[in-house]
Amino acid sequence: MNAPRDGQRLFLGGAWAEPDAGSYEVVDPATEETVGRAPEASEDQVLAACAAAREAFGAWSRTPAAERAAVLGRAADLIRSRLKEYADLARAETGATTGTARAMQVGVAAARFRRYATVEPAEWPIPPQINEAGPMGKAGVMGALAVRQPVGVVACITSYNNPWANPAGKVAPALAMGNTVVVKPAPQDPLSVYRMAEALEEAGAPPGVLNVVSGRSAGVGRAAVASPDVDMVSFTGSTAVGQHIAEVCGRDMKRQLMELGGKGAAVVLDDADLGSAVAGIGTTFSFYSGQICTAPTRVLVQRGLYDRLVDGLAAYARRLTVGDPAAPDTVVGPVISAEHRARVESYVELARKEGATVVTGGERPPLEKGFYVAPTVLADCTNDMRAAREEIFGPVVCVIPFDDEEEGVALANDSDYGLVDYVWSADVARAFRVARRLRAGGVGINTVGRNMEAPFGGFKRSGVGRDVGSYALHAYSEVQAIVWPG
To answer: Is the dihedral of CA 307, 311, 316, 318 positive or negative?
Structure first.
């Protein structure tokens, strides 16, 4: 049994181990009550997890791809069969609504394991090359093959906003490629990741193929990144932490996949469908309470639509039900912690001081418990305000006017970030023209939806590399060239 009354155990080398550094409380952000106790790993235990992954790598990397895929498929089925149980835990750990926890957290995790249970080709022929005689040998025809090989041991450091889909999006393709993995979940909601480990263990993942170590201490993550047994780090989180990880990885030339911060621009042109733009941008307020890096939190509106869009967004925000995530009519739950609530509130107050107008929101909802922030619309913003330049990660949008298309593109690109931007226009050709000029890893045209086979990642300080779909298999692999004489 891995979760005794006094707390969750670590998962090291296929065994459930007592944590050296004790445990800590995981708090429900909606009720402020204890969900459970999470283990605090020592740095020695982190290094032991990495060593276990290294020991398991040889056999797992040589396991036929179809057998690895079968493990992932069985894990997908197990996760799906426990949807309600796992979603209830995710809701308690994160404050996500019941619908979000079931569909977008646990449901997406199961879908990602199922996606990588399909074997894809790992080698491609390269057209033959005719070589003239020379210092390298006789004339001849050279054949070649590009082969995708696993990187090795991958340290996956995951974000708190989605403790199911985010780890699954790393673990599943990494294991499918033949890597072994050490997961360091976010300290706020690690218990769900241990349930994922249980499912993989039950599905037949050999000892050491997946390891989970958690803790509030920054030393837990540092030890995983610096471990000599780790070949690659896959990180989702803030740009500041990502920069530090990149510096450590650079010293040993470790491979990296970084999904970092975002300050998505929604460019709303004067011919846009106003209702569509309001509904799309409005998901900022409801989806994870704004705690999502792809949210269009910087709304750039052509001046002719500006007043109507501000009014529309404010009306949308006021209609949203804020409260208990377990209640069926709740749309907006709490943010993850009291500390994060204070951070979000400080940005709203700063925006006021910088000259922004709080059209709606800006105060705490009248609830006795929980870390709630009212959905907030800030108008009269300029692109140089800190609230418009820095990632707030809460239910807050800044609305900024522009005069013409050139200015709209310039404002959108005037950002340290470049993860996902959006364009709204009734003229699809115009929208595509604008989209191609935006310096962002993804652009949604008249939608905030995603294609889950499309590459995902950022320009500039929003990250390094691409994942999702087949791109994730490339991200967790090295390409080897094999050449021979024809």
So the answer is: positive
Are residues 229 and 51 in contact, defined by beta-carbon separation less than 8 angstroms?
A: yes
Pair of tokens at residue 136:
């390298």
- Please, what is the Cα angle at 34 between 6 and 155, to 5 degrees? 75
Q: Tokens 């900022």: give the residue.
A: 284
Active site residue 381: no
CATH class for the region spanning 10-260+462-485: alpha beta
Query: From CA 111, how far away is CA 72, in angstroms rounded?
Result: 10
Buried b / exposed e over 217-240, threshold 16 CB at 10 Å, is: beebbbbbbbbebbbbbbbbbebe
What does the block give as tokens for 51?
């060593």
Output the pTM of the full model: 0.95
Task: Given the residues 40, 93, 259, 391, select the one marked as catalytic.
Answer: 259
In contact, 435 and 423? CB cutoff 8 Å: yes
293 assigned to active site: yes
| Residue 134 DSSP label | B
What pLDDT digit, counting tens, does each position of 229-282 carry?
999 999 999 999 999 999 999 999 999 999 999 999 999 999 999 999 999 999
3-class state of residue 298 by DSSP: strand
Domain boundaries, the chain: 10-260+462-485, 265-457
Cβ–Cβ < 8 Å for 456, 165:
no
pLDDT attached to residue 482: 97
Using CA atoms, how far apart are residues 397 and 399, in angstroms rounded to an integer?
6
Q: For residue 263, which of 407, 462, 425, 434 has the smallest C-alpha distance?
A: 462
Buried b (16+ CB within 10 A) or exposed e, 442-453: bbbebebeeeee
Give the number of other CB atoms < 10 A from CB of residue 329.
Answer: 8
Question: Which among 293, 381, 391, 398 is annotated as catalytic?
Answer: 293
- CA-CA distance, 234 to 255, in Å (whole number)? 8
CATH of 265-457, one of 2.80.10.50, 3.40.50.920, 3.40.309.10, 3.40.50.1780: 3.40.309.10
DSSP label of 8: P
The per-residue pLDDT for range 130-146, each reduced to its tens digit, is 988 888 778 889 999 99
Token pair of 137 as six digits: 């040998």
d(CA 81, CA 75): 10
